[in-house]
Structures are given as C-alpha cells and as structure tokens.
Amino acid sequence: MKAPSNDPTFIKYWEKFYDDVVERDNFKAGHLEQLAILCQLFCDFYLLNEEIKKTGFTYETISERYGNQIKVNPACTQRDKVLSEIRQYSKLLGLLLVKDTKLNDEAQDEW
Coil, strand, or helix at residue 98? Predict the structure, then answer.
C-alpha cells in the first residue's frame, strides 16, 4: 500500500514498518491509521531536532523582577513529548526492539 503522505521521512518509516504491521496475526485496518500517526511523529521529531539545532537548547530572558533567566527551549520540551509518543505507538504496534538474550548468553559462555 502506498504511504498516505509524500514527506520523505514519512515514506521512509512507512516502508520500514508496513510489513511488520500488516503481517501481524491480529492485523486490523485501524493498525494502519496508528502506523500513519507513528510515521508523522517521526517527521515531527526530525523537524523539532532541526529547530533545536538552529535555536539551541536554551534561551535567555531578562526581567526586572527576576533578572537574567536561562530557560529550556520549548522545542526541546515538545521533542521529548513526541519521543514519548513514538515509544507509545511503537509499543502499541509491537515494533519495539527486544533484547536478544540468546546472543548475550552465548557471549557469556565464551568467557
């Protein structure tokens, strides 16, 4: 199925996760809507990162009452929220990375 957006980042993640979502035993059409939201979240994440690169992590304000204050860039706060949402949608769709314990056990046996 074609990605519902023309954004290159959206298409990248749509193509990356589409097969994993569609091949699930419990697949329903609603899963594709959730996947579209996840892909849009990745687009937002990268846009926020670009904004942070331009404006920095903090900014300074000066007021008579409180003097100089260094505050967190709102884009950083928003990026953290988007990252949290990415984790939630990835979990919802079963796209989380799982630790491969077999490889870790074999590595321990070698020593």
Answer: coil
